[in-house]
Amino acid sequence: MKTYRVLLLAAGVISSAGRALPVGLPEVKIPEQSDWALRAAVLQNGPSKSWDARLHGQISPSTVVKKNGVYYLYYIGADGNRKDGGPAHRALGVATSTDGIHFKKHENNPIITYLPHKNTEEGVFSAGATRDDNGDILLYWTAILARNSTTTQVNSNIHLGVSRNGVDFKKMKRLLHFDDSRVPSNDEIGALGAFHADGKWNLYYFSKGGVPAWSLVHASGPAKDNFAQKGKIILPARNESQQVIGGGDPVWLSNDKLALFLVCGFESGRIEVRTISPVRPDKLSAPVETYRFDGWRHATVFLDREVGAWLLYHRKREGNAIHVRTAPMILTGHDTRPRRKHRQ
User: Fold this and answer.
1) 33-328: which CATH topology?
2) Average of pLDDT values for 336-341?
């Protein structure tokens, strides 16, 4: 990956999306669609009947973090097709890289499985990762649950895993249950992204039942495993094009602004970029950028201040490969891009 020279005014800048950052962090501009350059395929599906023989049918790629110079790309695979054509036995794996472009799958993948009733509908559906002040990697992940081994009716809950090395996760308690009266759903919920600021943990997730389907919900609490405020709808899906079906990793733009890159609509193939304040994480701005990468679907976005670059990992709609796009990191007030002429 090309390294871009940038001015970093604060020592010890953290490159992981989702953590509180040093005072004086210079503000970064959100890339325009034309800034993103398609670079390479970073991961392919595995061979037939392997755990990741199929990569589509879930929110994958899911999320990226960086620790000690290593990128951890978390993604979900399935070992084949169900009778109805959907993905079977979905599980979560990880691939690592030192440059964000060339990845190697972990030899002991998958690292998280969930098949309590050995139902082909069960498994892991989405995930959002961040780091805490101890340097641990936190993985908020979606567990799909069936009532028995044969039913096609499933629900989903949100769990938390904690890891020192990004690979071995301790499966902590379930955090959010789909039929909790304080959760705006009676069917399925799924983790998207999380961050910590001002002593409060914030989690974004989708709600698929009981409210307009695939609405964006915000939860918050005093600890990474304790969300006292379990769910507030902050972006209701009033129609198909407004459904939030993926993305959602919070990215720090400055000390008082974050961006959410939301994948919206099953048919529209659209990424909306909205901003939030760490003091009002439940209030979204109007879209400040909109990307339309035709034929592409799920995406996770990562800002690496250490090398001065943005990375966007995504795959084609029914594709079995994960690709990366990159864009230069540009500080507010340092934009040297040629400006487009506007019609009068």
Assistant:
1) Tachylectin-2; Chain A (2.115.10)
2) 47
